[in-house]
Write a structure and sequence with these properties.
By secondary structure, the protein is of the alpha+beta class. It has a single domain, classed as 2-Layer Sandwich (Beta-lactamase Inhibitory Protein, Chain:B, domain 1). The protein is 28% helix and 43% strand.
């Protein structure tokens, strides 16, 4: 009984450790878009987004320069909708939702 509970506990720690270190991105053909990719790289790999919107602006750490925050949407029919958030021309966040059937 004690060995089984230790094994379950060790397995849980291993799974949680692996899942927190895994990162994913958005696939465009054979290319993958990931956080920190540049706007230019996204255009080159995926083409123009299906929808863009200006979210707002943010100040840099020195509070002098301003960066534009944008949201780009790519629809993959029958698959998912990918939502990329870009700050200062770099991907800062990638979300996805199931594509409506």
């Amino acid at each position: 009984m004690a060995i089984a509970s230790i094994s379950k506990h060790s397995f849980l720690i291993l799974v949680l450790g692996l899942s927190s270190s895994l990162s994913w991105g958005m696939r465009c053909g054979t290319d993958i878009i990931k956080v920190q990719d540049l706007e230019y790289e996204i255009y080159k790999k995926c083409g123009r987004p299906d929808h863009t919107s200006l979210v707002g602006y943010t100040l840099t750490g020195d509070r002098v320069r301003e960066h534009k925050i944008e949201r780009w949407v790519y629809e993959k029919p029958g698959d998912a909708i990918y939502i990329l958030e870009l700050t200062g021309g770099k991907v800062t966040k990638i979300d996805w939702r199931r594509s409506p059937s």
